[in-house]
Amino acid sequence: MKLDFPRYTERLGAVSIHAVQRIYELDSGKSKGFLTSHQTIKKFDYDEISNLLHDMAIVIPLKEERLKLLEGVLSGIPNECLVIIVSNSPRSPVDRYAMEVETVRLLGRFMDKRIVMIHQRDSAVGSILKKLKYNSILDSTGHVRAGKAEGMVLGLLIAKMYHKDYVGFIDADNYVPGAVNEYVKIFAAGFGMASSPYCNVRISWVFKPKVRNNSLQFSKWGRVSETTNKYLNSLLSSVTGFETDIIKTGNSGEHALSMPLADCLHYSSGYSIEPYEFVDVFEKFGGILPSKYPNVVEKGVEVFQIETRNPHFHEDKGKMHLNHMLEGSLAIIAASSICPSDLKRALRDQISQITGVKKQKKLDHRTRYPLIAPISTVPIAEFAKEVRENAETFYRLGGLK
Amino acid sequence: MKLDFPRYTERLGAVSIHAVQRIYELDSGKSKGFLTSHQTIKKFDYDEISNLLHDMAIVIPLKEERLKLLEGVLSGIPNECLVIIVSNSPRSPVDRYAMEVETVRLLGRFMDKRIVMIHQRDSAVGSILKKLKYNSILDSTGHVRAGKAEGMVLGLLIAKMYHKDYVGFIDADNYVPGAVNEYVKIFAAGFGMASSPYCNVRISWVFKPKVRNNSLQFSKWGRVSETTNKYLNSLLSSVTGFETDIIKTGNSGEHALSMPLADCLHYSSGYSIEPYEFVDVFEKFGGILPSKYPNVVEKGVEVFQIETRNPHFHEDKGKMHLNHMLEGSLAIIAASSICPSDLKRALRDQISQITGVKKQKKLDHRTRYPLIAPISTVPIAEFAKEVRENAETFYRLGGLK
Questions:
Q1: C-beta separation of A150 from A136 below 8 A
Q2: Are B258 and B381 spatial neighbours (Cβ–Cβ below 8 Å)?
Q3: To the nearest whole angstrom, how far is the Cα of A358 from the nearest Cα of chain B?
Q4: Which residue of A26, A51, A185 is the best one to mutate when testing the B interface, meaning the one whose CB has the most B CBs within 10 A?
Q5: Which H, E and C letters describe A347-372, residue by residue?
Q6: B315 — contact with chain A (CB < 8 Å)?
Q7: Out of B25, B177, B213, whose CB is closest to A310?
Q8: How far apart are CA A334 and CA A327, in angstroms?
């Protein structure tokens, strides 16, 4: 893989946000270095990428996605990675999770991949987390809540139990296995470029093709991303005093965290988890509020945004879904303690426009989008032992313990 | 890369046609072998693939394709490969070739790739080939003819001049760089599996998505492929006496040849070059007619058909183009000396249906689709010297001689 060094960086306290980096080659071969001296382009050979992938887990949150697509996604993930599938598919009247397990088990025979599967609503998992006092992920019935974010956090816990240093998230609704392959390599390249152990790598799509008037249109930005990015950039500008458009990946579902960073973040529920990573990093390490993490502040936090070569062909989930996503994204920006009051007002206006509900005096964001506590609060050895012993939906393939 | 060993093979004299093989993983990592003993699946690690790619040239025939797409295709080709771009784009009123050269030169700075470019209608190239008595590729004005096949053959000659062992062909109208990356690795995997130096690797697409009723439909076969494959299979069956549907890649534009095989094939002009490879191989090495190549017959010829994981998103070239392609494909099957008379009749009927022209008494296939002689007839050292000295449109990037 060959890509730009970051050409521009915005700094906010201990946080460095790098401008979008371009990929020049998906496979830059085995040979090291450049023939000529390209000092502005970084080249990763197979061995470097492979070494990073050995320490990486890929979490796939799953909810009724078509099994054909899941199959393609699995074929695109390099063999070195540990794959963690966290399903939230219904178990009755038809047990879709059983179908998913069966499909993956069959494929596993041919792929010889290390894959872990678990169902998010497994009652044993809920009980274990309750026992370990990780209540912020549980609903009133003592199960892990049904949101996507909750599934992702469960994935993080399992990655940690397998001692992985990096965790990437990839959606299961992708039509192009080659694009999935690129995402994983982009994650590796980002971590390989980082100079801090606290690192977030986010995918920026070169194109998101849409079908319009019976032909493919290669549009670059969706409305949700555009709006979320605009307000995240405003939040950033309001602190630095310099206007910026550096953030392009507010809603990037395909993103990755180094485990040390994942350990100390809070996670917002539902679809606002991705933009909330920015907000949380700003709040915790941006130097505006006192930080509880002096170690992290000392080393710094790096956010990479890397643009794919592959267009993003994925399932169209409809306008309702997009509106939910946008509402959640804006709400968590508005709820931030570092959000200035004029930006809050603008965000409230925008939210009432989307929802059609008149301005509420007080926004109840934290009730609608409760925060999940950092995973560092979970004693991981105990979690691992309990899950192995008691979680009925916990499957391991490829000789995993 | 992890894929099936061929599960079924049809044999015709010295020719082995392997049934379609599936890919299980795009990247099977660095580690060798399987944890468990999978004897029916072949695994190629990075190093094996990389070694094969070092001996491979990728030829891209170009004709007014959008430069954005070309850029994507180049980014998907692994760095180890030599890239040969043969352009047939117009040079006036706007010199599109100059634009192509400029684009590739700019990209070359970032990609550090070895790329050769040449224009098919370069008058020096025509003169050189005339001098070397390779007249079957020339038109009446002494230029290389303007067809796609002629460009591909010119690409083969240039690959040979750089001493490459394998040549793959990839079209420039592909939307997905990750798919291009897969094609190249599939070529390498095919050659890596071959037990003969005479080998043809053909890509079978898992899906060719089409836009219909404002949504994407994942269809598997186009009408052209379906019809061409049917008749190629009939031709095969008529010789062996056993009905078969083994051929699935009659019109595969993405295919590759080992140089020893490329050296002794004839090439049909225009869009019939791909299906004609089958016909020519059957005629020369199928044991029906006496062979002029005892060496090849002794070692055998292998045809691999490998199914991609990536769907094939490409530019829609319209119905006219498809009809031309189908007509050409059927015509060269009908013109074969091993085609039995009842099959010839059926093919003629089908052709008149497509063209709307009533049956001709005698088909003039060979005038419409003249054959290009094997490239082994060109003294390659002399060709190389002359091209380097005299071809004005011949550009080399990445430190190539």
A1: no
A2: no
A3: 35
A4: A26
A5: HHHHHHHHHCCCCCCCCCHHHHCCEE
A6: no
A7: B177
A8: 11
Is residue A54 within 8 A of residue B30, CB to CB? The reply is no
Helix (H, G, I), strand (E, B) or coil at A12: strand
Residue B217, classified by CB atoms within 10 Å of its CB into exposed (0-12), middle (13-18) or buried (19+), is: exposed
pLDDT, position A363: 56
Mean pLDDT over all residues of chain B? 92
> A131-145 in b/e burial notation, b at 16+ Cβ within 10 A?
ebebebbbeeeebbb
Which residues form the domain of A76? Answer: 2-397
Quick one: closest CA in B to A38, which residue?
B110
Cross-chain Cβ contact B35/A181 below 8 Å = no
Q: Is the pLDDT reported for residue B25 higher than 70? A: yes
Instruction: Report the alpha-carbon distance of residue B184 to residue B399 in Å, rounded.
Output: 22
Return the closest-CA partner of residue B161 out of B57, B296, B85: B57
CA A154 to chain centre: 13
> What does chain B come to in residues?
401
- The span from the CA of A312 to the CA of A10, in Å, is 27
Cβ-contact A238, A347 below 8 angstroms: no
ipTM value for the complex: 0.91
Is B64 part of the contact surface with chain A (CB cutoff 8 Å)?
no
A47 touches chain B (CB under 8 A): yes
Cross-chain residue pair A53–B23, CB shorter than 8 Å? no
**pLDDT tens for each residue of A355-366:** 877 655 555 666
Task: Compute how many other C-beta atoms are within 10 angstroms of the C-beta atom of residue B321.
Answer: 12
Any B CB within 8 A of A400 CB: no
- Check: CB of residue A165 under 8 Å from CB of residue A56: yes
Q: B112–A36: do the CB atoms touch at under 8 Å?
A: yes
Contact B211 A209 (CB under 8 A): no
Contact B11, B286 (CB under 8 A): no
Count CA within 13 A, CB hemisphere, residue A195.
10
Which residues numbered 235-254 in A keep a CB inside 8 Å of some CB on B?
A: none
pLDDT the model gives residue B109: 83
Question: If we measure between CA atoms, which residue out of B261, B243, B242, B269 comes closest to residue B332?
Answer: B269
CATH of residue A173's domain is 3.90.550.10
Cα separation, A225 vs A204, in Å, equals: 10
Residue type, B368: R
* Calpha distance A318→B237 (Å, rounded): 49
Dihedral of CA A260/A264/A265/A266: which sign? Answer: positive
pLDDT recorded at residue B218? 81
- Contact present, A44 and A1 (Cβ < 8 Å): yes
Q: Which helix (H) or strand (E) holds B380?
A: helix B380-390
d(CA B279, CA B256): 16
Do residue A50 and residue B46 have CB atoms under 8 angstroms apart? yes
Interface with chain B: mutation pick from A1, A4, A27, highest number of B CBs within 10 Å: A27
Measured between CB atoms, does B215 come within 8 Å of chain A? yes
What integer pLDDT is reported at residue B161 of this predicted model?
Answer: 97
Q: Is A107 on the interface with B (CB under 8 A)?
A: yes
Check CB contact of A5 with chain B, cutoff 8 Å.
Answer: no
Are A309 and A23 a contacting pair, CB within 8 Å? yes
- In total, how many domains does chain A have? 1
If you count them, how many residues does chain A have? 401
CB atoms within 10 A of CB A245: 12
Distance CA B197, CA B182 (A): 22
Q: Give the pairing of strands B301-307 and B198-204.
A: parallel
Buried b vs exposed e over B72-93: b needs ≥16 C-beta within 10 Å?
Answer: bbbbbbbbbbbbbbbbbbeeee
List the Cα angle B201/B202/B207 in 5-degree steps: 145
**Mean pLDDT over each residue of chain A, to the nearest integer:** 92
